[in-house]
Specification:
seven-stranded antiparallel sheet, 2 helices, globular, mainly beta, 122 residues, OB fold (Dihydrolipoamide Acetyltransferase, E2P)
Length: 122
């Protein structure tokens, strides 16, 4: 299930939404926007808020894809709406592949308690 996190764009004051989406395809063509920034069109897979699984296109700027992106991995994406109310999705290079889990640190508090109770600790 796709989780959407609402944030506020500090420049515009407009609400945006962060979510993870699976990268299915990276477009071959490099395109320039009106600010002369290079980007590629990518195809993402994610769930809409109603639970429907969809594939949608998004923008991935060169400042992101130059880090290296791989099809089949999940990447952080940003959903905003333009002045006409049309959705705009931008995909970053950030993914959850190596994200720490609760299980990684499950013994941390137990280990701390053991160290405090140890007879050698003064």
């Amino acid at each position: 299930m796709t989780t959407y996190k609402k944030i506020q764009n500090l420049k515009t004051g407009v609400s945006e939404f962060l979510f993870n989406a699976k990268l299915l395809k990276i477009g071959e063509n490099v395109i320039k926007n009106s600010n002369s920034k290079d980007y590629r069109i990518v195809t993402l897979e994610f769930e809409l808020p109603n639970g429907e699984q969809v594939q949608r296109t998004a923008i991935c700027y060169a400042s992101n894809y130059e880090y290296g992106i791989e099809e089949g991995k999940d990447y952080l994406s940003n959903l905003s709406f333009d002045e006409k109310g049309e959705p705009q999705i931008r995909m970053s290079h950030l993914n959850n592949a190596d994200r720490a889990s609760v299980e990684d640190f499950s013994g941390l508090f137990q280990a701390t308690k053991q160290l405090i109770d140890d007879e050698l600790v003064m």
